[in-house]
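Is this the right way to post structure tokens for a design question? Let me know if I should format differently. Anyway, here goes:
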């Protein structure tokens, strides 16, 4: 468990670590960079760097949290990676099923495997299932997610590196949008963000704009959230036309 600086969650929990790149959104994977740092620091969990590893000893961690938490599951991996055994995925779900006081946010790029396994998993209401969609080419992941039995479904359109116009949000509860950060970050454009926001409004779906990623991409150089000591600071700022959008699914209330 670790406190998280990710704006839409509280904690991260990593019963699985490591991953492999599957689509353009993975190009500058923060988890890969972080795993190298942790390996260099001698952290046992990352002795094998970014290779896929399951950690059975991490399964009991949620039972130790004394207060309800919002938890991003596998920020350093992908639970539905083909190298993660089905039995271990089921074990992770069993922990989530048995700790209903916590909200778990699970995010995958492997939507085909998610859909294939969905009927074999128990979808308690505290499990939010999401897919990453970085460009139009990967909107098929939305269709796969929509067909699962998850009670709360969300999209992480981050990093948004190209327009996304095929957005059927009929079965989606939440959309997160964000620009890429880092030295080689690819640009994000305001009209791409505005289109997604308008689609969320059409479907009455919660919209969460995480960040512009880099200040140079922000169309407002005077955005106060660019400043690091601002209470709503995000990389590159997070205002759109003077407003911060950090909506959460209604089911979180």
């Amino acid at each position: 468990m670790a406190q998280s600086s990710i704006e839409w969650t509280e904690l991260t929990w990593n019963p699985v670590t490591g991953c492999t790149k599957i689509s353009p959104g993975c190009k500058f994977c923060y988890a890969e960079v972080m795993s190298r740092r942790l390996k260099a620091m001698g952290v046992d969990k990352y002795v094998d760097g970014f290779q896929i590893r399951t950690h059975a000893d991490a399964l009991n961690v949620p039972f130790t949290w004394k207060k309800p938490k919002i938890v991003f599951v596998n920020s350093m991996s992908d639970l539905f990676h083909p190298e993660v055994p089905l039995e271990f995925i089921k074990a992770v779900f069993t922990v989530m099923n048995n700790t209903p006081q916590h909200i778990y946010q699970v995010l995958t790029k492997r939507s085909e495997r998610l859909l294939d396994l969905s009927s074999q998993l128990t979808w308690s209401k505290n499990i939010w299932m999401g897919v990453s969609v970085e460009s139009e080419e990967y909107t098929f992941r939305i269709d796969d997610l929509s067909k699962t039995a998850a009670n709360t479904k969300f999209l992480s359109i981050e990093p948004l590196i190209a327009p996304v116009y095929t957005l059927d949000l009929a079965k989606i509860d939440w959309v997160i949008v964000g620009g890429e950060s880092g030295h080689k970050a690819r640009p994000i454009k305001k009209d791409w963000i505005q289109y997604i926001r308008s689609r969320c409004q059409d479907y009455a779906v919660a919209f969460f704009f995480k960040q512009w990623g880099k200040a140079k991409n922000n169309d407002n150089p005077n955005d106060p959230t660019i400043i690091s000591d601002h209470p709503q600071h995000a990389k590159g700022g997070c205002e759109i036309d003077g407003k911060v959008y950090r909506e959460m699914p209604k089911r979180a209330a």
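Format looks fine. Someone answered above. Worth noting: Helices lie at 30-40, 86-97, 111-117, 140-146, 190-203. The radius of gyration is 18 Å.
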